[in-house]
Amino acid sequence: MIPVRRVVAGLRARSATTPGLLRLLSAGLLGATLLLWLTAFGTGLSRADAIDTVRNDAGPSFVAAQRIHADLSVADATVARAFLAGGVEPVAQRRVYEESVASASRRVVDLARTGGPLEAREPLTTLAREIPTYTGLVERARTNNRLGNVVGAAYLRQASTLMQYTILPAADALAAVDAGRIDASYDRATAWYHPVLVALAGLACLAGLVAVQVLLYRRTNRVFNLPLVAATALVAGVLGYTLSAFAAERSALRDGRDDAFQPMTLVAQARGLGLRAWGDESLALIARGNGTLFDQDAVRVTQRLGYDESGRALNDAPAAGTTSGGATADEALGPPVLPAVAAAGGPDAQPRAGLAGAWEQYQKTSVQVRAGAAQPGGFQQAVKLALTDGTATFGRYDRTADAALTASERRFAATLADASDDLAPVAVAATVVLVGATALTIAGFQVRINEYRRA
Questions:
Q1: What angle do CA 242, 246, 251 make, to 5 degrees?
Q2: What angle is formed at CA 375 by the lines to CA 361 and CA 152, rounded to 5 degrees?
């Protein structure tokens, strides 16, 4: 090892002459410029890689998991409603069921093909294994229903139980894995210390350039060293551009989170809960007086949406325990979903605005269906109302939710694209500009060193 004292002595000897001092200063500035390049290039690439993970991996996987949940919920609720019709099920509803199952199965295969994190393997395996089991139970239920065998209802209940308590939770687990990856990537893409590091490195480089120019002015009485002035301008430019790009990228990601990702998850939850309540209504009617468990589940689901069993918003309903109809949402499960959807702002608030109203229209019909089914001799009329007005009003709710979900998905993708575009030029710009600044710095010092040589 070279002794520290020898190094210090060598530096002192070099700095004893003006040319030697200039060479040392130029080396210091080149080091500061290199440090600025490393911080701008490295932090820019880190943020860009995080955005790419969300945009091309975790984000699409999360959307696919939500769509799997939605497709399977549609399939389960639709097949129950078709079963309620008795005999040969309606062709349109059978088509919806088949298309929904096929869509979910394709998405599962696509996600399995792309690999993904280890945490996603178990829920994907569950989905791949249990969806065929579910469809097999549904086919048994259909066959027995066409033959008039009451055992068909038992097969349908078994299929729905498998869906609600095994398959859909697996889809939720898959979405949770991707949501965690999105959160982690968001944290990396918006890390507060990235702009701080760039700012510190840039200010240090600028301070060095300015200090050197002041020193040269005092020693040479030259007001401007044009190459160093140009290098200073380039460093200031790349510093300002990098920080502004980081700010624009952070703003785009914040908009994507607040105006797209969060509303998207809320709408997906509202749609899934609505489909579950609709399916519960069908299963309760199919049970013909033995559907208490389904009615109770429908009440719990409705409360999660923000309404009591009579169709009143929870904040308008009596507090729990004050009347037989009073209810509040389960606080452990979070705030009511539909009010949260309505409160979410952003450019796509309009597609979500009608969701609560559409649910209220459906629930009015659902209340009438339950009341009719409970009356002596009113069962057939209740079934007819469920198959006509109930199906129509819920269809409007589901279409509204699907449109709002699609709008949020598009907004999320657009904001990620904007954030990626904001960062894309940073690494290249920092490299090109700082190479130019380095060349100008060397040229500026060399001019002064050559003057001493000629002297």
A1: 150
A2: 80
Interval 161-182: pLDDT, tens: 999 999 999 999 999 999 999 9
Please tell me the distance from the alpha carbon of residue 293 to that of residue 382, in angstroms, as a whole number. Answer: 18
Q: Give the whole-angstrom CA distance, residue 164 versus residue 150.
A: 22
List, for residues 246-289, the tens digit of each pLDDT value.
Answer: 999 999 999 999 999 999 999 999 999 999 999 999 999 998 87
CB atoms within 10 A of CB 305: 24
Alpha helices in 190-261 (DSSP H): 193-220, 226-256
- The 8-class DSSP code of residue 311 comes to S
Q: What is the pTM of this model?
A: 0.86
C-alpha 313/C-alpha 364 separation (Å) is 12
Mean pLDDT of 102-123: 91
CA distances from 196 to 191, 247, 419 (A): 10, 12, 19
* Cα 56 to chain centroid, rounded: 12
Q: Distance from first CA to last CA of the chain, Å, rounded? A: 38
Host H or E run for residue 393: helix 391-423
Handedness of CA 308, 311, 316, 322 (dihedral sign): negative
